[in-house]
Every structure is written in C-alpha cells, then in structure tokens.
Amino acid sequence: MTSIDQHVASYQAVHDDYDAFTNRIGDLIDDLLERAEIKIQSIEARTKSIESFAEKINRPTKSYSDPMNELPDLSGVRILVYYSDDVDTVGEILREEFEIVEEELAHLPNELDADRFGYLSAHYIVRLSGNRLALPEWEPFREFRAEVQIRTVLQHAWAAISRALQYKQVSDVPAELKRRLFRLAGLFELADEEFVKIRDLHQEIAEMSKIAITSGDTSIALGPTALDEFLANWSRKSEIIEAAESAGFNLLDGDAIGDEQDTSGRILQLAQKLGVQTVAELEELLDFDPKEYFERLIRTNRDDGFGGWGGEYPFFVELMLIRAKYPEIDVHLLESLGWGDSIASRVIGVSNTRK
Questions:
Q1: What is the rounded distance in angstroms from the CA atom of residue 154 to the CA atom of residue 123?
Q2: What is the 3-state secondary structure (H, E, C) of 256-314?
Q3: C-alpha torsion angle, residues 201, 205, 211, 217 (rounded to 10)
Q4: Roughly what angle, to the nearest 10 degrees, separates helices 341-351 and 313-324?
Q5: Residues near 104 by Cβ (< 8 Å), separated by ≥ 6?
Q6: Phi–psi pair at 311, nearest 5 degrees
Q7: Of 137, 267, 343, 344, which has the highest C-beta tally within 10 A?
Q8: How many other CB atoms are there within 10 angstroms of residue 116's CB atom?
Q9: Which of 304, 312, 314 lies closest to 347, judged by CA?
Q10: How many C-beta atoms surround the C-beta of residue 185 within 10 A?
Q11: What is the pLDDT of residue 117?
C-alpha cells in the first residue's frame, strides 16, 4: 500500500466523525448568526468527500506528509450574506466564538489588486475555543478544524460565473476579454456598495416613518413602512378586530399563517392603484363603522354555501378599503392582487350594496 493509499484509508476511517463535526459547526454558526440578527441568503456546510481528498493529495504539484493536518478544509462552511459590511460582522462573530487558526482577507475589495478579477471573499480557519471544549458534546472534536468562507450573494455569483468561464486567474484570460471582465468585476463591486447604501437609506426612511406615525403625523407618504406603522398604531385597531369577530370572522394570527405581510402588500398596491397617496388619505377613507358591512360579508358567505371565514387584522382593513372605494374596484382588479375569483365576486357584491 502506497503512502497515498494509507492517507486515504486513514481519512476514510474518520470521515463520519468529520461529517458529524461539519454538521454541528454549521448548525452552531447558523444559530450564532440568527441570534445576532444577521440576515443571510444561505449557509452551506460540507465535508470533503473521500474521492476529493484522494484527488487532492494525489496532485503532482502538491506534496503532503500529513494531509489530514495540512488540509484545512476537510470541514467547510460557506456563508452567503446580502450586504458587504456583513462580511466583516460575521468575521467578528467568528473571532469571538472560535479560536482563529488562520485568517485570509486578501480577497476583500480593499485588498484586491486593481488588475485582478479573482472572486472576493473572506476565509477563516477555525477550531473550537476553550469554553466550548469544556462542554462534553464538543470534546470529541478537540483537534478538528473548519474552513469558513464568507461572501456576499453578488460575490458568489461572480465566482460562479468565473468558474463557468473556466478562468481561474488573469493569465488564463484572452487579452481581448480582459477589459470586459474588469469592467464587469467593477460593476459587481459597485452593486455591493450600492446595496449597503440602499439598505441604510431604507432603514432611515423606516425610522422617520415610525417617528411620524407614533407622533400623530399622518401626512407622510403611504409606503410599506408607513403602512405597517399605521396598522400597528392605529387607534381603531381593537375596534376593527372586535367588529370583525362579533360579525363572525375568526381572528387568525398573521405570523402563524404567513399572510400578514402579503395582506399589507395588497393594501398598499390597492391604495396606490386607487390614487391614495398619504396615510391621512387612507385613514379618512376608513372613517366608518364596519360592523354592519362585516356582518353582511359573513351572511353572504354562509348563504353561498361556504363555512367559517377567518382573517388577520390587516385583512379586515383591506376589506374596509374595498368597501370605501367600491365604485372604483372590480373583480379583475382584486384578481390582479391575488384574490380568487369567487371570493372577490362575493366581496365586490356586498361592497356595492349599501344598506
């Protein structure tokens, strides 16, 4: 048996242990990011296959005396974040929670040479820190290491395209294509920077909307955040819910059914199609007692052979907006917002009947 065969046999014997470590550390990092409220696109944990291990140590340009200790990526975790500054934030979390064996930041934008288009990312080789090793469930992985790679979604897209083109380094690129690739690399990097600016501006607008609504200023433009703040802080919220329940609606938890955000989006789309521009205009349209209207909706629903009717609070507000602007709303408009034909017809029929 050659030395390579011996190394492969040794790795095969512990492959299941590495796989267990990979899954555990992937779950741990996922939990740490969730606690830190960092939104990620995905996290992928993988253990190097036995075949890949054998191929790597058998390359003629490489020579390993102890490959299981020399190869840092037997366990690997790839984290895709949405924003470029989150690459640094995730790196800080890794430094706090693990012992950093090696840190490679040469592929970050401020470190990359201007004439290179190699993929951007941050790489860390980590192992368990002392406090975690004190826990019995982590003790078996004392000597294990993992490579953690952090990229933005756009950086990952660039890497994937580069691999598809089979250009691993600048010298591989035909001269007539280099300029185009450099320009594209710059656009990807610029897009990452702009997404951070857009996120920050979005947060600023959201905070301003929240301050305006909570202080009673409803003259602000009707947008996603302004609508959400209005719905959450509207003084008539309890009244609307009580009217719906007393009419026979079952109050559902929007978070539980995953529909509250969709309903808010429909309200905003409907309001925009109807020319409602400010929160004040929306509030004025909703200035009526909906109890009798809700009762007729429930009665019609039952008369048409349907059973109980449930909804979350924003859905009741959506019904009120339809009732308030019924001359301008038809079934086709509601269908364009995701309503089913039969339920849209019933709601339009009741909304067009004033009693």
A1: 17
A2: HHCCHHHHHHHHHHHHHHCCCCEHHHHHHHCCCCCHHHHHHHHHHHHHCCCCCEEECHH
A3: 160
A4: 60
A5: 122, 123, 124
A6: -170, 160
A7: 267
A8: 13
A9: 304
A10: 19
A11: 43
Q: What is the pLDDT of residue 257?
A: 40
Cα gap 283→277, rounded to integer Å: 11
User: Which two structure tokens, joined as six digits, stand for 319?
Assistant: 């019904």
Kind and range of the H or E run holding 187? helix 175-214
Question: Residue 168 — pLDDT band, cuts 50, 70, 90?
Answer: low
Nearest-CA neighbor of 150 among 124, 169, 178? 124
Q: Are 247 and 291 in contact (CB under 8 A)?
A: yes
List the Cα angle 9/15/21 in 5-degree steps. Answer: 155
Which helix (DSSP H) or strand (DSSP E) does residue 311 occupy?
strand 309-311
**Token pair in block for residue 205:** 């607008």
- Residue (of 345, 229, 230, 355) closest to 294 by Cα position: 355
What is the three-state SS of 136-150? CCCHHHCCCEEEEEE
What SS3 state is found at 112? coil
170 pLDDT band, cuts 50/70/90, is: low
The overall pTM is greater than 0.90 = no
> How many beta carbons lie within 10 A of that of residue 324, not counting itself?
21
Helices (H), 106-174: 130-133, 153-165
Q: Which of 273, 291, 288, 286 is nearest to 336 (CA)?
A: 273
Residue that has been written with the tokens 């299981």 in this structure = 68
pLDDT at 188 over 90: no
Smallest CA-to-CA distance from 329 within 278, 271, 285, 289 is with 271
Beta bridge partners of 148: 77, 124
CB 120 within 8 A of CB 151: yes
**For position 114, what pLDDT does the model report?**
43
The reported pLDDT for the residue numbered 5 is 85
